[in-house]
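sanity check both lines:
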Amino acid sequence: MTNTFSGTEFSSTDLAQFIDHTLLKPEATAADVQATVDEALGLGTYSVCVSPNMLPLQLPDSASLKIAAVCGFPSGKHASSIKAAEAALAVMQGAHEIDMVIDVGAAVEGEFGKVEADIAAVRKAVPAPTILKVIIESAALNDEQIVAVCRAAAAAGADFVKTSTGFHPAGGASVDAVRLMSETVAGKLGVKASGGIRSREVALAMIAAGATRLGVSGSRAVLSEGAADSESAGY
């Protein structure tokens, strides 16, 4: 899970392999999702990330594109058993990766054992080789809480910690949060930066800070030198 970033001399092909090309807008239609899949295939992104009720997706037999689905999204205020069932169904319908949202309120209250148990319930429902990413809403937490939640995710067997849903009013990814998360997991887990990554410059800054995956809805803009994507929203 270590980050081998060594500067800004990334080709678009290199950068695309960090990206989960994402569509999580509530108003997204089946046609929108298929267009997102087609765009991901054309751009060569690592994966496509969608809402679980949009599964299964239709991919060419030769496609290496991974499929990710969210779980307990976007509030995290779901019973652990519901999150676990949602994740298991998504995997049954073709998801290779699950991005789950923690109970952020539990983290704010310092109930890190509760956070760990919530993550562990989902991990049990979707064991390896399914990749489990844990969305912590870093912008809503202080540094001590970020560290504690990252440690809880590691203890529960997660594969990644992830900054944000992109829907929280506190904001999305920040370089400081990514750096702190990366230092905390020390290469044992991946770090996914998501929320507000709309330019190549910001994407590379996140990678330099320790991100090993990026959640991006405006991937075409990011991969074409990073012009802001005015159509990108909600992630």
Notes: The CA atoms of residues 67 and 95 lie 5 Å apart.
